[in-house]
């Protein structure tokens, strides 16, 4: 019999058998540490993210217009030979959105020329017809593939590097261009942008999560002075520069122009995320908004469309928008109404052209036929 087994039963009364062993102490210490870390994270989110920047404490104390109307009138107006508005079509499901965007530009009397960048191998004749029915001129482009075979790039952004083709418009004499994502809608004229002397301008991004008001810009609306030399320079760097591949060209452009971009007011890229983040800021931005960016909800896309490729037929568009009204607790009803109102006007004004598009093929050309 060993010493221990002999004395196992001899336990003094004051010795509590449930007394934590050193191992238990370690466990309790770790649990306390984890609880304290969790509490810190919660408090950090609550305190620091609720009071991050003045925009989170927004008050409408400045009611001046963002552009002096007299000054804007006296500026030279866009010349269609030298100024262009560009959007892009990478999948058929955005064709009606672009028709609506085009008509929203008609409604504010835009005089710059309008170009629709599209990937000929991906877009059906019908979608191209619809997208160009209200003023955009088709402009086929070559796809710029994401570097390293797209490794790490979010699948929805695989074609997004093609956007860089805007810089090549200097070849056709374009001196200033405004790029608009296909999920934008124009509410007011933004001609003043074409008079900017800067090479590049964009609007700071907004996130609904803890990141909130960002210093990096959103690439959905860009102002730029096209330059073939800059284009070549960018292409030579997309694969070697260090940036977040997930966000594709947006992240690259933020690294390329991070310190040189002119930051524009939110009115030029009124991203729905602003409303979700801080309705008071949205109310003020909306008063002057030139361009609304339908980031969080896209009225023209199928409700459960994760592929982004299902096409909502024109006759189903209004009911599609209706079905999306309740998203985000109905937060964007007014903006959805704005969009559907312009869509209705588009369909009315361009009824014949849109009807004619129905006779075009709804499948992209096969690679052999091109
Ligand atoms: C656009 O031009 C038309 C015709 O000149 C004019 O009636 C209309 O008020 C203008 N619209 C805007 C938004 O300036």
UniProtKB/TrEMBL annotation:
It comes from the Eukaryota. InterPro entries: Glyco_trans_8, GNT1/Glycosyltrans_8, Nucleotide-diphossugar_trans. GO terms for molecular function: transferase activity. The lineage of its organism: Eukaryota, Fungi, Dikarya, Basidiomycota, Agaricomycotina. It holds the Pfam family Glyco_transf_8. This is Nucleotide-diphospho-sugar transferase. Keywords: Membrane, Transferase, Transmembrane, Transmembrane helix. The chain crosses the membrane at residues 25-44.
């Amino acid at each position: 019999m060993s010493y221990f087994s002999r004395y196992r039963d001899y336990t003094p009364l004051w010795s509590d058998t449930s007394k934590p062993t050193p191992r238990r102490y370690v466990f309790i210490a770790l649990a306390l540490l984890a609880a304290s870390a969790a509490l810190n994270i919660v408090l950090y989110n609550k305190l620091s993210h609720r009071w991050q920047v003045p925009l989170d404490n927004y008050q409408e104390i400045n009611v001046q217009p963002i552009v002096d109307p007299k000054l804007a009138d006296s500026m030279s107006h866009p010349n269609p030979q030298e100024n262009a508005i560009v959007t892009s079509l990478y999948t058929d499901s955005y064709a009606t959105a672009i028709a609506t965007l085009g008509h929203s530009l008609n409604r504010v009397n835009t005089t710059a020329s309008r170009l629709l960048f599209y990937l000929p191998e991906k877009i059906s004749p019908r979608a191209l017809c619809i997208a160009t029915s209200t003023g955009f001129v088709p402009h086929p482009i070559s796809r710029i593939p994401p570097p390293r075979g797209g490794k790490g790039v979010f699948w929805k952004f695989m074609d997004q590097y093609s956007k860089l083709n805007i810089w090549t418009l200097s070849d056709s004499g374009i001196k200033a261009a405004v790029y608009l994502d296909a999920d934008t809608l124009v509410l007011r004229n933004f001609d003043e942008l074409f008079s900017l002397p800067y090479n590049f301008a964009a609007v700071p991004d907004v996130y609904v999560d803890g990141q909130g008001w960002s210093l990096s810009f959103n690439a959905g609306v860009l102002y730029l002075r096209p330059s073939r030399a800059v284009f070549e320079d960018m292409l030579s760097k997309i694969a070697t520069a260090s940036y977040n591949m997930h966000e594709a060209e947006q992240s690259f452009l933020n690294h390329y122009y991070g310190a040189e971009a002119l930051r524009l007011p939110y009115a030029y890229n009124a991203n729905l995320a602003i409303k979700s983040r801080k309705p008071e800021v949205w109310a003020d931005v909306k008063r002057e908004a030139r361009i609304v960016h339908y980031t969080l909800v896209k009225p023209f896309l199928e409700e459960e469309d994760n592929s982004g490729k299902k096409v909502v037929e024109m006759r189903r568009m209004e009911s599609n928008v209706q079905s999306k009204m309740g998203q985000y607790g109905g937060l964007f009803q007014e903006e959805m109404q704005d969009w559907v109102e312009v869509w209705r006007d588009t369909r009315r004004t361009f009824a014949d052209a849109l009807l004619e598009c129905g006779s075009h093929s709804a499948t992209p050309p096969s690679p052999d036929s091109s």
